[in-house]
Amino acid sequence: MKIKVIAVGKTDSKQLSELIHIYEKRLGFYVNFELDIIPDIKNSKNLSEAQQKEKEGELILKKLQPTDVLVLLDEGGKSFSSIKFSEYIQKKMNAGTKQLVLVIGGPYGFSETIYQKSQGKISLSAMTFSHQMVRLFLVEQLYRAFTILRNEPYHHQ
């Protein structure tokens, strides 16, 4: 299985980018992993919230393959403990999922088209985080999930 994370907008913080890269590299030992950044929408100040979500949605759709399993990071999604998240990843692998695509939306979330196309939603927390921070949290949790599945000493109960 391949895991692809699509994120809208670049990360402004060099420190955050470095941390994300560390976990991207670590993930490479366990799974074919890709972080795909969609550039910020140009002239977004001239767009309504709905128009911005639509434009971002169109760009997300262009990155998808017909067989992809699309899961959105959304505050209204299902919450997991780290162990339950690792079990979720294992189930996706066992089901023969070719590519699991996890999407971190822009500041306003997702267009209705993206919600309709998705096959699930995951919430990392009931709290709101910047979409830049969510990238770090997600890649770390993916890494943690694989160390749990391999019984490696990264995660402590």
UniProtKB/TrEMBL annotation:
EC identifiers of the protein: 2.1.1.177
Protein name, as recorded: Ribosomal RNA large subunit methyltransferase H
Family: Belongs to the RNA methyltransferase RlmH family.
Signal peptide: none
Keyword rRNA processing in record: yes
Compartments where found: Cytoplasm
Gene Ontology cellular component list: cytoplasm
Binding site for S-adenosyl-L-methionine: 73, 105, 124-129
Catalyzed chemical reaction(s): pseudouridine(1915) in 23S rRNA + S-adenosyl-L-methionine = N(3)-methylpseudouridine(1915) in 23S rRNA + S-adenosyl-L-homocysteine + H(+)
HAMAP family on file: 23SrRNA_methyltr_H (MF_00658)
Gene symbol of the encoding locus: rlmH
